[in-house]
Amino acid sequence: MRAIGLHIRLDDGLDTVVHRVHELQLTTLQCFLLNQVTQKFIEPTAQEAQAFIAVTAHIAQRFVHASYWTNLAHTQPTSVRFVQREIELAKRLGFTHIIFHPGYAKGATDRMQGIEALARRLNFMLRKEDTIQIVLENSAHSNLSIGGNMTDFRAILERLEHPEKVRFCLDTVHAHAYGYDLQSLYGQQVFLQAVEHAVGLERIALIHLNNTLQQRGSYLDEHLLLDQGAIALRALQHLVQQPALIHVPIIMEMPSATLADEERQVALVRSW
Asked: Of 73, 18, 10, nearest to 42 (Cα)?
């Protein structure tokens, strides 16, 4: 059975995640490790960490979304200590994957300088990291943002010492906002060919299935419920049912929504 889940906000700590998993019978999950109120890392006790692992152990793929503060493409020398702390906390809680936005080439004159900086930092981290899977997500933005254009990921892989340790996440809103056509069947074919050429569809570890009212090519990252956006539901359904993606887990990243809304969205995707 295909894994379907939600991004869950840590409004009340790890208990929020556990309750949502049970209420919605999720088969995968994603969350930040920053408390949404304090903007500080959660600090679970050893007992809380073990309890969380026990409750979520039946879920094969458990995703952490790295903090938006992280910018691995910054061209100035900077410590990765913050990132390493986040990775260690994710491993302590039994997460299997951690998702990073590739970042913004701050201080650079072109994206390639940011790609070089990102690859250097990934190489540093991956030399000793064999426990958790690093996942890079496509971006909605242009100019010096990395990962809007799929060719950026090809350039990143070519600079990694251990490319086999990196996987990728496709966000439908980000692709649409960057300018890829997900509405038409031909446009989806072109998009998937770009992904295949850049990284290979077998490297896709996760789909962020989202919708938006923003027009294609807006470069604006705004999420709505699946049945309220500008991307037709039938187009989103067709995309996630492509044979090469049919077994890839799906996470929906909705704006603040009621439990009833969340239940409706999960049921909709399950019905596909």
From this structure: 10
